[in-house]
Amino acid sequence: MRAQLNKFGLIVVSIAMGFMLSLTYSAIADKSTDKDAKSQPQLPLDELRTFAEVFGKIKTDYVEPVDDKKLITEAIKGMVSGLDPHSDYLDADGFKDLQAGTQGEFGGLGIEVGMEDGFVKVVSPIEDTPAYKAGIKSGDLIIKLDDTAVKGLTLSDAVKMMRGKPDTPITLTILRKGEPKPLVITLKRAAIKTQSVKYKLVEPGYAYVRITQFQEHTGEDLAKALQTLRDQNKEPFKGLILDLRNNPGGLLNAAVGVVAAFIPKGDLVVYTEGRTEDAKMNLTANPENYVRGSADYLRNASPELKTVPMAVIVNGGSASASEIVAGALQDQKRAVIMGTQSFGKGSVQTILPMNNGTAIKLTTARYFTPNGRSIQAKGIVPDITVEDATLSSSDSSGLNLREADLSNHLSNPKDASANTPATPVKTPDAATPAPVDKDKAPADKTSDKAPPEPGSKSDYQFNQALNLLKGAQILQRK
């Protein structure tokens, strides 16, 4: 009798699930355009039957009882994360953490990460964070968090493990190109308050601005920084360097605000294309495209910012919003782009809150530069390539990670070669990492050489950008 009731319960669950899916499907169909409606596919009944059958088998045959909520949640996670490397399902805590991160304050290690072959791959360490100071590099593959293997975890689960109370330690086991065995790096979490805009007057007439991340107040902070530099200089600028190296991106409106500081009002910054009307945008250098609920922070900006000679520095850690800025300034012939090819993340993620306090981070559009270039899986190619001369060959090999190297990455619609799946970066023993013998575990290790201070005399790329601006000033005088 009990077995019969169990079967009946599963049937009820399956019917209810099918009913909910039908309602959801109908709602989605209602949002479709007329063109899409004509070719709208039928509900995949065979696949839904298979889903219900798998659900039932797990409920009856799995070695331990599993809660219905857990099964449904894990199914949603898999459905969303399987789309591309940047879509994800956020539980209530993950949603709150994301909101805190865009406001410039959160607890954790300070790294922008993605998934590759089931492991966590570092896109870029954020400056002045525990990860940056410990020598974590772009392209590092994290295979263990403390004693927990990363293989099998979702990206949100791994991020949740890396975050925690300040001053609590965590040990990362990392595979790095050029290293014969895994690196074991122990570092402490911190209450991270990232300063998104840093600046200084390099020498009379030459300003340096570094943007580490695009946050809620980045545009306002940039406007204040430029005014402070102008007051310090007490005369028109001769040149300005905008440093976007290892900037993992952030808020789209903040990127538009940064570009708007340097190009004429009304000029195109970026446009997006997606399936819904909300995903199709033309964002120009107008206040309504970068100001959120306050006065235009660029209203009193000096007119000279629209004409001052500029050099923008990018590298393989420059992604998403930083590529929007570099691409717009490049297409508008407003700045010379220097450094190395950028990451190539040309997709837009929209945070869609759910009714239960969770959210999905869903890829909803591709973005294009003013000249119609798609950065997706390609990146920004500098006008002048300047390698970082301070890195050894073994160090630089870890910096070659690109969007095109990520499994299941979104294709580039403008580039036929980018539509071909890229060969994943081969990392030693990445597929089946050798177990670490606790008695013979590698010693804790950080980078062999601390990275040079950005904008310092030891920063080769920065000095080349400064030399370029000085050369342009000399030619202009002649």
Automatic annotation (TrEMBL):
Pfam family, one: Peptidase_S41
Sorted UniProt keywords: Hydrolase, Protease, Serine protease
Biased composition (Basic and acidic residues): 436-451
Region (Disordered): 408-462
Alphabetical list of InterPro entries matching this protein: ClpP/crotonase-like_dom_sf, CtpA/B_N, PDZ, PDZ_sf, Peptidase_S41A, Tail-specific_protease
Stretches assigned to the PDZ domain: 95-163
GO molecular function: endopeptidase activity; serine-type peptidase activity
GO BP: proteolysis; signal transduction
A cellular component term, taken from the record's GO annotations: outer membrane-bounded periplasmic space
Protein's UniProt keywords contain Ribonucleoprotein: no
Alphabetized NCBIfam families for the sequence: prc
Family: Belongs to the peptidase S41A family.
Protein name as it appears in the record: Peptidase S41
Native species: Methyloradius palustris
